[in-house]
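Take a sample.
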Amino acid sequence: MIIYTACLALGLLFTLISAVASHFFGGHEMAGHVDLGGHAGTGLGHGGVQGMSFLSPTVLACFVTAFGACGLILSRVAATWGVWITAPISAVAGLAMASVAFVLFNFIFSHTQGSSEGHVAALIGQTASIVTPIPRKGVGEIAYVQGGARYTAPARAENGLAVQAGKEVRITRIVGTQFFVDSVY
């Protein structure tokens, strides 16, 4: 019973310390970069995936707290009295609560994360305007609007011909950071 009490107290203590510490010491800055194609990069781990790991301190604290609380409750019930019954049930309850926390936080993070990076595939077929003229078989610059924001990108004419500034074009394909365009008739 002392282990369950310690787990519950440790989990609650961690939660309180995390809440207070995040209030005073939160807001860590991260380094990042944006390349010419409008792709943003940051110092995040997880293979580029936003969210929490199942082994994050928050999820682990949720497991420890639920394990302790469930163990305390079950040790008071006569039918489940005994460590061989309460420990496995408490472990399953802890895993269940940790799983709920993991799914809930990842759901919240996936819906609150904003990004200035547009989806490149959605740009195919979109119209743009020539900002810097495209010389014959050369590179110029286009401007396009996506998600309410204006972006510029290096561009080549699909047919290799010169295109004057101010002309409206359609994006036909994107290779790396270079956009290929065709005149709109």
User: Anything to note?
Assistant: Helices lie at 2-25, 57-76, 83-112. The first strand starts at residue 32 and ends at 34. The chain has two domains: 2-112, 120-183. The mean pLDDT is 81.
